[in-house]
C-alpha cells in the first residue's frame, strides 16, 4: 500500500462521514458516493473498504435502526457492490479515461446490487420485523438513493482532470 492511496482512502471515508449525515430515510443516506468514486479511482479493494465504512458510519449515526446484524449484512453487500462496480468499469472501459458504456453498465449493476440484491440478502432478518409490505416499500428508496449516489460519483469522476484518473491504471 502506498501512502497516497491510504491518504486518498481516508479522505473518501471522511466524505462518507459527511454523506452519512445527509439521510433520506433511517440509515439510507449519501454515504456510498465516495465509495463509488473511490472504487473508480483507487480500485475494488479500496472501494469496498470505503463503502463498508461509509455504511457503518451511517448506521452508527442513525443508532443501528434495523439492528446491528442487519447493518453487518449491508456492509458486506456494500463491499461486494463496490468490487463489482469497479471491476466491471475497469473491464469495459479498458484504457479509456471515461467510458459512458462502462459507467452505465457498472452503474446499473451497482443499483441492482445495492437495491434488490441487498434486500434479498436481508430477507431472513427483515421480513419478520417489517413484513413484505415494508420490504417492497424499501426497494424503490434504496435503489433510487443508490442510483443518485452512483450518478454523483460518476459526475465527479467525469469532471476530474485526466491526470488524476490516470492513477487508477497504475493500481
Q: In words, what does this structure look like?
A:
GO terms for molecular function: transmembrane transporter activity. The chain crosses the membrane at residues 6-24, 36-62, 68-90, 102-127, 133-160. It is globular and about 50 Å long. The chain is mainly alpha-helical and 171 residues long. The chain contains seven helices and two strands, in the order αββαααααα. A hairpin with a 2-residue loop joins β1 and β2. The protein has helices at 3-20, 33-41, 44-62, 68-93, 100-159, 162-165, 167-170; strands at 23-25, 28-29. Helices cover 82% and strands 3% of the residues. α3 packs antiparallel against α4 (68-93). It starts with a helix and ends with a helix. A two-stranded antiparallel sheet has the order 1-2. The chain has one domain: Arp2/3 complex 21 kDa subunit ARPC3 (Orthogonal Bundle).
List its traits.
mainly alpha, two-stranded antiparallel sheet, 2 strands, Arp2/3 complex 21 kDa subunit ARPC3, 7 helices, 171 residues, 82% helix
Strand segment count: 2
Low-confidence stretches: none
Number of helices: 7
Structural class estimated from helices and strands: mainly alpha
Shape: globular
Transmembrane segments: 6-24, 36-62, 68-90, 102-127, 133-160
InterPro entries: ECF_trnsprt_substrate-spec
GO molecular function: transmembrane transporter activity
Keywords: Membrane, Transmembrane, Transmembrane helix
Describe this structure in a few short sentences:
This is ECF transporter, substrate-specific component. The protein has about 170 residues and is mostly helical. The protein is about 80% helix and about 5% strand.
